[in-house]
Design goal:
heterodimer, A: 23 helices, 3 strands, B: mainly alpha, 4 helices, flat
Chain lengths: 577, 120
């Protein structure tokens, strides 16, 4: 184990600062090397390593390593490395810097030992990730990015308000510690701030709105960090809050129902982030060691297969320029490698035996009815969500993208850069590796694991669920066929009335300020003119705008007359007095 | 039923292999379900293990991890659905149908709009 106590976030932040100054030829390689260096550091740094710094009156803990932070650090830096390989062909420095800064934020939150440090990195993530949406450079992406940023500013504000109230209380400390519901306003504000990042409905719309509009690379990075960092903070600070179990189960189903309706391939995956994060939130809500292990291992697996899913759909978008199921189909012969690698992720998220989703999701779901817990409703509803996951991500999306032939025009995709497939293959390898050898992942979990997913009971359950989901999908294809429409979500509540609100609240002020601007410019113009020729108001010739002394100088006779008149008046006044 | 038969008639060789594979897997899973691998007895045994091993809310700060063992074995056998024959078959089929019908037939007509609805 390493004696180095450099926060891994520093490496990524330094990378983001240095990258623009590196020669263009090596920038893409450096983009991979910085997260790789962070990964090596995280794998070798000692448990219990700490780094503190005194800032004003506060001692900030910039680095604190334990099993929980290490496992999140490992997967964050690994997926950033794989994402770097996938995006090797991208030569846009802005996007690369934003991605590195985003990962730095995620690692900073993960290894922060105090709330202030956590908050600073939290905000860094929000700003850097917004750029990954804007970098698509479409009007839709620009608007979605603004809504995304506003949501995260709100979340950050709530989190910071909670932190300030918490530390101002008697005995309040800036050190990160567990919160209890009875701790009052501070704890609830902090929870609210965190669940916005976890995309808990009804505060989830930033995700389903923005992720499908991000750049191809941006979506891969976005899928991995924001929600999972929130899961980390929930596991760290809010384990055992029963409200999280309820909302977690709602999330699992909310995501799958909207994914059934979605037409955009990345929109389907975005809704399935909400669904999958629901399992993690529910696990944290159950709060037993098994459930926390389940939530953490599922976050680990999810980052792998979700990034792979976004990579697969990213290749489709990159090579065809299309992302709607109604515009896609029949690509299997043209993109067999992409399809196979995508299916590895689809089998993983669906919980197929021998894929990583099987070994992590099952632990979270089983925790609902194990170890003294008896949330049968949660167990069954989470299994129902698993059915929906296979239905949309494992069947609907691949079928209508690669297999269905009912399309008006034959697509001619371009050849994807080879690095895209290498990045995908690397992630796919670990999806299968952890599915076959779960011991590696289980060994990194916060608590010792005795869970064995490969029991006959579990295998029977999963096989029957998956087979009959497939059969029903096949029979009900005419109903589930995608439509070239959008499904309204709760963002309708603020997007639809936005025009009316603008008319009532913004437009009058906008008009008033515009008019005032015109008036002030007009007044300034008139004053300038008057200054150029103060005699202008007194002359008949308005065209003569520039003052010339000779033109306005009165005749000498008039002056003499005036002087004499004044003199005579003075003399007369003197005589009279 | 007629539609199902029509679908089966339209299958090619590869698809038939896949259908046979699915049927085989289903049959195997049913055999496993009723041959003791999925019985109440096993579940009771594992429940005992659970009771000892897995414990308590993660009440202590997760900074101090590596606490108690986190779980063992299987799950679900001791619950009411264990006595329902082919429960997971029904659950998968009905669950899938419910999700599709609820999404497409109930929610869809209400929330489906034209793609330029927000006019961006």
């Amino acid at each position: 184990m390493s004696e180095l106590t450099i926060p891994p976030a520093f490496i990524l932040a330094a990378g983001a600062l240095l990258l623009p100054f590196l020669p263009k030829k090596i920038r893409s390689a450096a983009f991979i090397l910085f997260p790789l260096a962070a990964l090596i550091l995280i794998l070798t740094i000692k448990d219990g390593a700490m780094l503190t710094a005194k800032v004003m009156n506060y001692e900030l803990t910039l680095l604190k390593v334990d099993a929980l932070s290490r496992i999140f650090g490992i997967i964050f830096s690994f997926i950033a490395t794989a994402g770097g390989i996938y995006a090797y062909h991208i030569k846009e420095t802005g996007q690369q810097c934003a991605a590195l800064l985003y990962v730095a934020g995620a690692l900073g939150v993960t290894f922060a030992g105090d709330f202030f440090t956590l908050f600073i990195y939290w905000e860094m993530m929000a700003v850097a990730s917004t750029y990954l949406i804007w970098a698509r450079r479409t009007k839709e992406a620009q608007n979605a990015g603004i809504r995304y940023l506003l949501y995260h500013v709100l979340g950050g504000g709530l989190l910071f308000a909670g932190i300030l109230i918490h530390i101002s209380k008697e005995g309040g400390s800036i050190l990160i510690s567990q919160m209890k519901p009875e701790m009052g306003l501070s704890a609830w504000l902090m929870l609210l701030g965190v669940v916005i990042n976890a995309a808990v409905p009804p505060l989830h719309t930033w995700l389903s709105d923005a992720y499908p509009k991000a750049t191809v690379t941006g979506a891969v990075f976005l899928s991995a960090f924001t929600t999972k960092t929130a899961v980390y903070v929930l596991a760290r600070v809010f384990p055992g809050w029963e409200i999280l179990l309820i909302f977690g189960v709602i999330m699992t189903l909310y995501g799958v129902v909207f994914a059934v309706l979605a037409n955009d391939i990345r929109g389907i995956l975005a809704y399935h982030i909400i669904s999958q994060v629901g399992y993690m939130v529910a696990g944290v809500g159950i709060g037993t060691a098994m459930a926390i292990n389940g939530a953490v291992s599922h976050a680990f697996s999810h980052i792998l297969y979700k990034a792979l899913l976004f990579m697969g759909t990213g290749v489709v978008l990159h090579t065809t320029g299309k992302s709607k199921l109604t515009d896609l189909g029949g690509l299997v012969k043209k993109q067999p490698v992409t399809m196979v690698l995508y299916m590895v992720a689809a089998f993983s998220i669906s919980g197929f035996p021998l894929f990583n989703g099987f070994i992590s999701k099952s632990m979270t779901v089983a925790a609902a009815i194990s170890g003294g817990e008896n949330h049968e409703w949660a167990f069954l509803l989470m299994n129902l969500a698993a059915v929906g996951t296979f239905l949309s991500v494992g069947l609907k999306l691949p079928y209508y993208t690669w297999f269905s032939k009912e399309k008006p025009a034959e697509l001619e995709p371009t050849k994807p850069p080879v690095n895209m497939h290498i990045g995908m293959a690397l992630v796919a390898f670990f999806c299968i590796f952890h599915g076959i050898f779960p011991g590696q992942l289980y060994g990194w979990l916060p608590s010792p694991v005795e869970w064995n997913p490969f029991t006959m009971h579990h295998l029977v359950e999963v096989i029957q669920l998956l087979i009959f989901t497939f059969i029903l999908f096949w029979l009900m294809r005419p109903i589930i066929t995608p439509k070239a429409k959008i499904a309204l979500d709760l963002d309708w509540l603020y997007r639809r009335p936005a025009k009316a609100i603008r008319k009532v609240v913004v437009d009058p002020w906008d008009t008033a300020f515009s008019k005032m601007e015109v008036w002030s410019i007009d007044i300034a113009r008139k004053l300038t003119e008057a200054a150029r020729n103060p005699m202008l108001p007194f002359t008949k010739d308005k065209a003569d705008r520039v003052y010339t002394p000779d033109r306005y100088r009165p005749p000498a006779g008039k002056i003499v007359f005036a002087v004499l008149a004044i003199f005579a008046a003075a003399v007369l006044l003197g005589l009279l007095l | 039923m007629k539609r199902m038969l029509k679908m089966l008639k339209e299958l090619n060789k590869m698809q038939w292999v896949f259908v046979v594979f699915l049927a085989l897997m289903t049959a195997l899973s049913i055999v496993a379900e009723f041959s003791g691998g999925h019985g109440t007895q096993e579940a009771h045994e594992t429940k005992a293990v659970h009771g000892d091993a897995q414990n308590t809310h993660a009440a202590q700060d997760t900074h101090d991890t590596h606490a108690e063992p986190a779980a063992a074995g299987s799950h679900g056998g001791a619950h009411w659905w264990a006595s329902v024959p082919f429960f997971w078959i029904w659950f998968g089929a009905v669950g899938c149908a419910v999700l599709i019908l609820f999404g497409k037939k109930i929610l869809g007509p209400v929330i489906y709009k034209k793609e330029d609805y927000y006019n961006e």
